[in-house]
Amino acid sequence: MFKPLPLFIGLRYTRAKRRTGFISFITLTSILGIALGVAALITVLSVMNGFEEELRDRILGMTSHASITGTDGELRDWETLQDTLKGEPRIKGWAPYVEGQAMINSDRRVSGSLLRGILPDYEPRVSEVAHRMVTGQLVDLKPGEFGIVLGSELAEHLGVVPGDKVTVITPQVTPTPAGILPRLKRFTVVGVFHVGMFEYDRNLALINLEDAKRLFSLADGISGLRLKVDDVFYAREIARSVGPKLPGEYMITDWTQAHSNFFKAIQTEKRVMFIILLLIVAVAAFNIVSTLVMVVTDKRADIAILRTQGMPPSSVMAIFIVLGTIIGLLGTLLGGISGVLLALNVETVVPAIEKLFGVHFLSADVYYISELPSRLIWGDVYRITGVAFLLSVLATLYPAWQASRIKPAEELRYE
User: Fold this and answer.
1) Under 8 Å CB-to-CB from 146, ≥6 apart: which residues?
2) Rounded to whole angstroms, how far apart are CA atoms 210 and 222?
3) DSSP state, residue 296
4) Between 255-298 and 378-404, two packed helices, what is the crossing angle to 10 degrees?
5) What is the DSSP letter of 362?
6) Rg (Cα) of the chain, in Å, rounded?
7) What angle do CA 201, 203, 204 make, to 5 degrees?
């Protein structure tokens, strides 16, 4: 079907003469439409991939991959579990913690917060907070000195800096002659961390584990053990394999139980966005139909002459399939290259646009992440360009079929 002659004529028709300049303009519009749709689809999916990866890294950098606690919500004698955990090659670290809700009051403001008691020597094994300190260090959280490390947004909201005093108010009550009063304790701010995620920078405060046990009236127990595994995607399987080996009855949870709906929502949004943007590509691809219909109308006499010289209908059809395929191929290649370049440079282009126009697209107090990340996955690029090219080829079939049905006698009757 695709012989050299149909290929040559199809290539020739891509270069319009002056009298068919309007058709050339429509052809260029079709190419640019496909290119724009493909580039937009590659860029948007890359940004969503980067957004998902950044969220996962930041969330799992502050929360545990898995955790162990007692059946009553407290874990006692956690040291006895270490021998079992040391024998598990897929568990890279563990750290005890005490967690509870509290109100933190400064001389100026008050804020609710998640208060987490940690051991400074163990915490770097399971989280990135030690590497995210703006001022101070985790080792400044010494038992009995009642120091506290605040998230950067929380410290800014309270108007405090290292060295200032804050009052921590817990739901636990203390009976006094004057009645039952909430438990209060003065803490000294010894550090500030910034992880770049508003949820933690605004709502998390860290204190020493021993201070937290006293504050929450935990005599011998803790809230649990936080675990870090070698592959977060297999956290559930690893946690399930560890459970039967522990000496006693314990509850084991993993991050997929706490954040599964969140990441499923992101995956669903990616699929919906892919379909929506693919419709843009489809509209641009089917613009080829109108372009080829106009070309066929303009070339009816030429087609009739070719038919009288013995060209079969299949070869006529091949001419216009070649023409439409070239339009689709050029648009797909242009869009693919543009999309890849833009996706690889989003983190440079977006700040430049923000600086130029004085705007900020992702406000930290509204979105989880205040910067626009990007992660290009070549599998997405191949899938997008393949689908765009396939739609372009399919769009050529009807006009090419119409061209093959032209009757030479009727077209040349008045020539």
Assistant:
1) 185, 186, 187, 188, 207, 208, 211
2) 9
3) H
4) 30
5) S
6) 33
7) 75
> Token pair for residue 31?
């190419």
Q: How far is CA 166 from CA 104, 107, 113, 217, in A?
A: 7, 8, 13, 20
Amino acid (one-letter) located at 295: V
Which residue type is seen at 236?
Answer: R
Which residues fall within 8 angstroms of residue 355, CB to CB, at 6 or more apart? Answer: none
Q: What is the length of the chain?
A: 415
Model pLDDT for residues 30-81, shown as the tens digit of each residue: 888 889 889 988 998 888 888 878 777 777 777 788 888 887 878 888 888 8
Residue 398 C-alpha from the chain's centroid: 39
The DSSP symbol for 197 reads B
pTM, full prediction:
0.66
What's the gap between Cα 83 and its chain centre?
A: 37
Lowest mean pLDDT among 23-27, 216-220, 315-319: 23-27
* Owner of token pair 């039952």: 180
Is the Cα torsion angle 237, 239, 242, 248 positive or negative in sign?
negative
Q: Where are the domains of the chain?
A: 4-58+262-412, 72-248
Beta-strand pair 91-105/224-229: antiparallel
